[in-house]
UniProtKB/TrEMBL annotation:
Annotated organism of origin: Streptomyces halobius
Keywords of the record: Sigma factor, Transcription, Transcription regulation
Domain RNA polymerase sigma factor 70 region 4 type residues, every copy: 151-203
InterPro entries for the chain: ECF_Sigma-70_Domain, NTF2-like_dom_sf, RNA_pol_sigma-70_dom, RNA_pol_sigma-G_actinobac, RNA_pol_sigma70_r2, RNA_pol_sigma70_r4_t2, RNA_pol_sigma_r2, RNA_pol_sigma_r3/r4-like
RNA polymerase sigma-70 region domain segment(s): 30-97
Oligomer and partners: Interacts transiently with the RNA polymerase catalytic core formed by RpoA, RpoB, RpoC and RpoZ (2 alpha, 1 beta, 1 beta' and 1 omega subunit) to form the RNA polymerase holoenzyme that can initiate transcription.
Protein name: Sigma-70 family RNA polymerase sigma factor
Family: Belongs to the sigma-70 factor family. ECF subfamily.
Length: 340
């Protein structure tokens, strides 16, 4: 998916000869410098990479059109976050909460029919790290940011009322002060603190901490685990795969509600309904602060974006997203694997 430029989308600032006015070009550059962090914010708010990018583009267009009325009483960054928050809150009005399959039902069995699948708007979707994680230059900040786009954390955020969601993200993830958040929302500090307290309580009930812990970088052991996973999956060696799975590991496949828990059921699925995955090839990518792969089946057709979760030297989650027509371009992957 190609990102749109601010100037190109609103149709201003480009002269017939291809030259842009210097002042307009400078403004466009200033706005574009905030695109990645705004996309990360909107993704946490909305749970969809596609909706997040649409929300940021709308934010940029609104900012471009109203910049003449920007009085500079707040920083450009704060002003953009205010616009982005309003865009997200508008999008969330009356919308259904996005979730993961494990948020909707108990584990299925191999005999459970797959079903027809739910629409894209029902699911938390994956996102490439490069789209949402700006390079702050601070390894500690980067580690916290990676943890704050985990699929489970994004799903937990969707349990919150939209304004509570905004408060928690701004306060706990982005480290804004209560005064700054109150000004952004046109609210009081007391109301912001109350919303934050309620948001923390809701996340605690879901088992998620309101303030993400720093995500450690991949160490030698984790890299070796992933290498063994790729080898086992591509050889379709179920004994080797079983040895890598945690006893409570899960397999999910949005847009289908069906999900499985435990190595035994996962392997039964692979050898039954999932037998078409035999002979697949995995191309490494990075999604939601975690290692991921683009999965191509033996014939070269794209099948899934796999987001891999690990803990304690084992794989705890195989999250397979099957909307390949949109997801593979998002991750910069071709829609046909030619062996290279």
């Amino acid at each position: 998916m190609k990102r749109s430029s601010v100037v190109g989308d609103v149709g201003v600032g480009v002269e017939d000869g291809g030259r842009r006015d210097a002042q307009q070009g400078e403004l466009a550059d200033l706005l574009e410098a905030h695109r990645t962090e705004l996309t990360g914010y909107c993704y946490r708010m909305l749970g969809s990479a596609f909706e997040a990018e649409d929300a940021v583009q709308e934010t940029m267009v609104r900012a471009w059109r109203s910049h003449g009325r920007f009085e500079g009483r707040a920083s450009l960054r704060s002003w953009l976050y205010r616009i982005a928050t309003n865009v997200c809150l508008d999008l969330l009005k009356g919308s259904r909460r996005r979730a993961r399959p494990m948020d909707l039902a108990s584990p299925s069995s191999v005999e459970t029919p797959v079903g027809t699948g739910l629409p894209e708007a029902a699911w938390i979707g994956p996102v490439p790290d490069g789209r949402v994680l700006a390079d702050s230059g601070d390894p500690a900040e980067t580690a916290v940011a990676r943890e704050s786009v985990r699929l489970a954390f994004i799903a937990a955020l969707q349990r919150l009322a939209p304004r509570q969601r905004a408060v928690l993200i701004l306060r706990e993830v982005l480290s804004w002060s209560a005064n700054e958040v109150a000004e952004l929302l046109g609210s009081s500090v007391a109301a912001v603190n109350s919303a934050l307290q309620r948001a923390r309580a809701t996340l605690a009930e879901s088992g998620e901490a309101a303030e993400p812990e720093p995500a450690p970088p991949l160490d030698h052991e984790q890299k070796a685990l992933l290498k063994r996973y790729v080898d086992a999956f591509e050889r379709f060696d179920m004994d080797a795969l079983t040895a890598l799975l945690h006893e409570d590991s899960t397999l999910s496949m949005p847009p289908y509600e069906l999900w499985l828990r435990g190595p035994e059921d996962i392997v039964k699925w692979m050898l039954g309904p999932g037998i078409g995955c035999r002979g697949s090839h995995l191309v490494p990518v990075v999604a939601n602060g975690r290692p991921a792969f683009g999965q191509y089946r033996a014939g070269g057709e794209p099948w899934a974006i796999q987001v891999i979760e690990t803990a304690g030297g084992r794989i705890t989650g195989l999250n397979q997203f099957l909307d390949t027509e949109r997801l593979f371009p998002l991750f910069g992957l071709p829609l046909r694997y030619d062996g290279r």
